[in-house]
Amino acid sequence: MIKLFVLTSLLLAGMHATYGQSIDRLEEQRNSRLKELAFEVKYGKAPKNLSYKKVKVNIDSTLVNNWLFNAQKSSKPEMLLNFLEPDFLEFTLSKKYGFHPEYKRLEEYQNFFRWVQRFEHQRFVLINIANNELIYYQDNLPVLRMNVIVGTTKNKTPTMATYADALVVYPYWTATRNIAINEILPAVKKDIGYLARNSFVVLDKNYKIIDPASIEWQSMDASNFQYTFRQGTGCDNSLGLLKINIENPFSVYMHDTPHTERSQSLFNKENRFFSHGCIRLQKPLELAQLLDPVTDIDENLMNECLINQTPKTISLKEKVPIFIMYFTDYIDENGDWISVRDHYGLNKK
């Protein structure tokens, strides 16, 4: 809002040179500031607290240059400002709160729709960690919405701008070292039957399956544990029947969830901060199909629940941008301004 006001003021302002300044120098400074502001109005700035960015910038600088050329020739440049604004319904609806005393709280959300225009955005996925929701956009319109489960306050889901590049049908789940040592190893020490009941096999450092009975579990701790726990495929797998790979250094991905009443019921909770950092999907098959894999996925996948299947990786025809953001203030599908709790405390930074 303030940027638009300053931009309009600069366009309408005349040149007033002071002692020692030339009109040419002032004009140069004014034009530089105009271009900077117009660029920010069009393309925004990097979101706060962004942990990782992989998406490639694809900016057409001629759009801003052409707009400035036309605006400076216009007698009413303020009438041209809408040509810089994002063409997303949520952004447009957010502007109706422009005179709200706390309007500034929406700036980060609005900025996202400017910033996303820096990239190929004909289709993309937006995940808002703060309100546990995923939206798939096609041509600036929301096509699919779903509840998601994200990381706890201890195991936060990181913010990022990256790509989905492949799906895995009937995925294995390989426990991270942290989970293996802090959660699975204590359970195995109490009862080695825990492994069989939860479909785990034990892999050595060469990723070969070994007999768990051959290991002296009571002597194992973080200093000498050199094994890997891998969970077999099926409906009871921690990743469910479908995993969506996203490029990042955090071992975070999107996935189905075990097909149990307890696991599925978590999607109906008001606050859904239950994972170790990955994103659990309420509608994994619907999203996977929209991502356009090179091979069609069986529509009955979620109903068959086969066990001991071999994992199958399916590439996407094109990588799809994935934006995992954090907005405690946003506009919902009804055009209402919604505020949610800052569970991760990121707004305080």
Describe the model:
By secondary structure, the chain is α+β, with helices and mostly antiparallel strands. The chain folds into 2 domains: 2-121 and 335-348, no CATH class; 165-324, no CATH class. It has helices at residues 2-12, 23-43, 61-73, 89-94, 107-115, 177-190, 193-197, 261-265, 284-290, 301-304; strands spanning 52-53, 123-128, 133-138, 141-151, 160-169, 173-174, 200-203, 209-210, 228-231, 242-246, 254-255, 273-275, 279-281, 312-325, 329-331, 337-339. It has an 8-stranded mixed β-barrel. Strands 6-9-7-8 form a 4-stranded antiparallel sheet. The longest helix has 21 residues, at 23-43. It is elongated. The two termini are 23 Å apart.
Question: What key attributes describe this structure?
Answer:
349 residues, alpha+beta, eight-stranded mixed beta barrel, four-stranded antiparallel sheet, 10 helices, 16 strands, 23% strand
